[in-house]
Write a structure and sequence with these properties.
- The complex is a heterodimer of chains A (458) and B (58).
- Chain A contains 15 helices and 15 strands.
- Chain A has an eleven-stranded mixed beta sheet with strand order 1-3-2-6-8-7-14-15-11-9-10, sandwiched between helices. Chain A has a two-stranded antiparallel sheet with strand order 4-5. A two-stranded antiparallel ribbon of chain A has the order 12-13.
- Chain A is globular, with a radius of gyration of 20 Å.
- Chain A is an alpha/beta fold and 458 residues long.
- In chain A, α2 crosses α5, α9 packs across α11 and α9 crosses α12.
- In chain B, α1 packs across α2.
- The chains are: A alpha/beta (458), B mainly alpha (58).
- The interface between A and B is medium-sized, with 32 and 27 residues.
């Protein structure tokens, strides 16, 4: 097995190559991942359901056969997406009585068509609306949050309990857990991956995407969902131009994050990328625009359940739905008009500086402790949800593809991350630039908190 | 945004809002209504970032 001791440790691309070469059977890989899942799940609580029997049956059916690019690759699905035969719970008691889905969500169907094997459904912060995802824990520090709302997908992939996973990102919900768990998160262009068969949070801001342990893994996974993704090892970025965003809402950030951003710039320059500082003041009000749109659209989407079973929705999300339902149409439209102005401003910046992409911190600080409600930046407190969403939401509002990629380990022993955002439909540009940053970053290794706990557990 | 206005709004849209939640919702609305982005002056001639695409099923 080379440098790895068990198949679950393989990267997605390497596993796919070994399966294609007949060196690894899909059933062997799936069994190994399920064994790892069983080992780590009591510590992480990343799954709401695991279909071990179904996954092994599907894997055995692929043994010895040819197939798609993801043949035999075990993947996990955030529990807002329909998976045939399983209820879609959305992390909310109001959906606890949901019947088993009659068919797969479009994204799940695409993965299966490429040969992927669904091993289970992962936790989500309630209704995909939050950045904690209880009860899931962070594999780097079991006392910290995995982020959210796709926290289960992030924790599962970081821990080796799946080789890749699907998530959704309305205001950072893929990139935040990716950053906090030390993995790669991809939010494609708006509507690039179908939202069919997924619970909505905000129709105009929801983006379907993925998490994986490396950029090349993310490229292969994304290629099953959309056309035009470059081959996993196509990483030529020479001559590209990148603008770095450091002003609000991308400030303030912790010193570790500033250092990670500097390392990312160095990696890009080493790869032949031209990097310059840019500013887009129009993005400063991203947070209030994001909240107005999400609250109004989420309240409308969930209105029937808010009327029928309000007590089965947690207080935090329920409060957002309640004020969202009463928010004047004028505020919602002001937000959507400001969003258009933001899109125009970003497009203007790309044109004026002849940019191919923007670079910014993914999140301003390391993962919060599970009970932590505020961060401190230079002596000033900021609610955790506002801090994490202010740096990610701008690229939901502008609908650009954005890729979160690790930049190292900070002083607290937690991963840091930056994000690369490219023009709409240019996921390949963002991924190639993310790969250049990844090449310049020492490997993070296995999540330390989880590995220490497993040793103590043994 | 006072509590009475929130109760009246909730009743008008049919939202079941228990008395103990009124103050929290009023406070959130008070904070959120003036927000949502730029001023009307700044937004003149800017259309919202939502489009309507007519679709008919045959």
């Amino acid at each position: 097995m080379g440098a790895v001791s068990a198949p679950w440790e393989l990267g997605l691309v390497e596993a796919a190559e070994r399966i294609a070469a007949g060196e690894l059977a899909p059933s062997e890989l799936v069994a190994s991942v399920l064994e790892r899942l069983e080992e780590v799940e009591p510590l992480l609580s990343a799954f709401v359901s695991v279909d071990a029997e179904g996954a092994l049956r599907a894997a055995r059916a692929q043994d010895g056969r040819s197939g798609g690019a993801l043949r035999g690759i075990p993947v996990a699905i955030k529990d807002i997406f329909d998976v045939q035969g399983f209820p879609t719970g959305g992390g909310c008691d109001a959906y606890a009585d949901a019947p088993a889905a009659a068919s797969d969500a479009a994204a799940v169907s695409s993965l299966r068509a490429a040969g992927a094997i669904v091993i289970g459904k992962t936790t989500t912060h309630e209704l995909a609306c939050g950045v904690y995802t209880p009860p899931t824990r962070n594999p780097w520090d079991l006392g910290r949050s995995a982020g959210g709302s796709s926290g289960g997908s992030g924790a599962a992939v970081a821990a080796g309990a799946a080789l890749g996973a699907i998530g959704s990102d309305t205001g950072g919900s893929i990139r935040i857990p990716a950053a906090h768990c030390g993995i790669v998160g991809v939010k494609p262009t708006y509507d690039r991956v179908s939202r069919a068969g997924a619970l909505a949070l905000s129709w105009s801001l929801d983006h379907v995407g993925l998490v994986a342990r490396s950029v090349e893994d993310a490229m292969l996974l994304l290629s099953a969902l959309v056309d035009g993704v470059p081959p996993p090892r196509d990483a030529d970025v020479g001559g590209l131009r990148v603008g770095v965003l450091r002003d609000a809402p991308f400030a303030p950030v912790d010193p570790d994050v500033t250092a990670g951003l500097a390392d990312a710039v160095d990696a890009l320059v080493t790869a032949g990328v031209s990097v310059e500082e840019v500013a887009v003041p129009a993005l400063e009000k991203s947070l209030e625009v994001e909240f107005a749109i999400v609250a109004a659209e989420a309240a409308s989407y969930h209105e029937a359940r808010l009327r029928r079973t309000p007590d089965r929705i947690g207080d935090g999300v329920r409060g957002l739905l309640e004020w969202g339902l009463l928010l004047p149409a004028s505020t919602y439209l002001r937000a959507q008009r400001t969003r258009r102005a933001m899109q125009d401003a970003v497009a203007g910046t790309f044109a004026a500086h002849q940019l191919d992409a923007l670079l910014a911190p993914t999140v301003p600080a390391a993962a919060q402790h599970v009970e932590q409600l505020e961060y401190e930046f230079g002596g000033t407190s900021e609610p955790v949800i506002e801090a994490l969403v202010r740096t990610t939401a701008p690229f939901n509002l502008v609908s650009m593809p954005a890729v979160a990629v690790p930049t190292g380990i900070g002083a607290a022993g937690m991963p840091t991350s930056v994000q690369i955002a490219a023009r709409p439909f240019e996921e390949g540009v963002a991924l190639r630039l993310a790969a250049a940053i990844e090449r310049g970053t020492p490997p993070l290794g296995k999540p330390r908190g989880l590995e220490a706990a497993l040793v103590n557990h043994a | 945004m006072n509590d009475e206005a929130v109760v009246a709004l909730a009743r008008a849209v049919g939202l079941p809002l228990p008395a103990e939640r009124v103050a929290e919702v009023a406070s959130s609305l008070e904070a959120q209504i003036p927000r949502g982005g730029w001023t009307a002056d700044d937004l003149e001639d800017i259309e919202p970032a939502v489009v309507f695409e007519p679709r008919w099923e045959r």
